[in-house]
Write a structure and sequence with these properties.
The structure is a single chain. The chain has about 100 residues and is α+β, with helices and mostly antiparallel strands. The radius of gyration is 14 Å and the shape is globular. The C terminus is likely disordered.
């Protein structure tokens, strides 16, 4: 399995939607460069974000969706949260 990142637009939209749900704010108020502490997202909110975004992905039938915990733990902005999102895809079979 290999991991692929979603398009930047898809990733930021999913991150904004999930974080908006966690913080109970309109996702349109969350910019990619919004610092997490400035919008009230502490370390607990970031962990809940991971759970919420995985639930949203499951609802959208994205079973191979993953959150890169190493990236997530160092997130400082909404854009960083978006950068933690990836999808696993089957590795291509080697050509003969």
């Amino acid at each position: 399995m290999t991991e692929t990142t979603p398009s930047p637009t898809d990733a930021i939209d999913l991150a904004r939607r999930a974080l908006g749900h966690v913080l109970d704010v309109d996702p349109s108020q969350l910019r990619e460069d919004s610092p997490l502490p400035d919008i009230g997202a502490d370390s607990v909110a970031v962990l809940v974000f991971a759970d919420v975004v995985e639930a949203f992905a499951a609802t959208a039938a994205l079973p191979s969706f993953v959150v890169d915990e190493a990236v997530l733990l160092h997130a400082r902005s909404v854009g960083d949260l978006a950068a933690s999102l990836a999808w696993r895809t089957p590795a291509s079979a080697p050509s003969e």
